[in-house]
Design a protein that fits this description.
The protein is mostly beta strands. 0% of the residues lie in helices and 60% in strands. The protein contains no helices and eleven strands. The chain has strands at residues 2-7, 10-13, 18-26, 30-39, 46-52, 57-59, 67-72, 77-82, 91-100, 106-110, 114-119. The strands form two sheets. Strands 2, 4, 5, 6, 9, 10 and 11 form a seven-stranded mixed sheet that branches. A four-stranded antiparallel sheet has the order 1-3-8-7, with no helix packed on it. A hairpin with a 4-residue loop joins β5 and β6. It starts with a strand and ends with a strand.
Length: 120
């Protein structure tokens, strides 16, 4: 069993910055991929950024150059540094982890979600 706990959401003005964190705990053998998704009101959930344990990253076009995802393997924690925030970034952000919990067992886990609101 693995739990993902998010923190760092809040209210920020356009152009400001915010850093989200997501700490994984429990029976973790290793982390394969972790990522951040977001869902705005009336919108579908979308992938924002993802990172492998080896450091390979992928970003949505809308956040390239503004957001940076990183993974601290020692702490089993993934971060999302968000700079130059726009009102369009307002959403609930969810942490996701594809995590090895057994010799050949991999599962997807989700955090509880954290609200990010960007004002004009």
């Amino acid at each position: 069993q693995v739990q993902l706990v998010e923190s760092g959401g809040g209210l920020v003005q356009a152009g400001g910055s915010l850093r989200l964190s997501c700490a994984a705990s429990g029976n973790i053998f290793s982390i394969n991929v972790m990522g951040w998704y977001r869902q705005a009101p009336g919108k579908q959930r979308e992938l924002v950024a993802a990172i492998t344990s080896g450091g390979n990253t992928n970003y949505a076009d809308s956040v390239k150059g503004r957001f940076t995802i990183s993974l601290d393997n020692a702490k089993n924690t993934v971060y999302l540094q968000m700079n130059s925030l726009k009102p369009e970034d307002t959403a609930v952000y969810y942490c996701n982890g594809h995590i090895r919990v057994g010799v050949i067992q991999f599962y997807d886990y989700w955090g509880q979600g954290t609200q990010v609101t960007v004002s004009l």
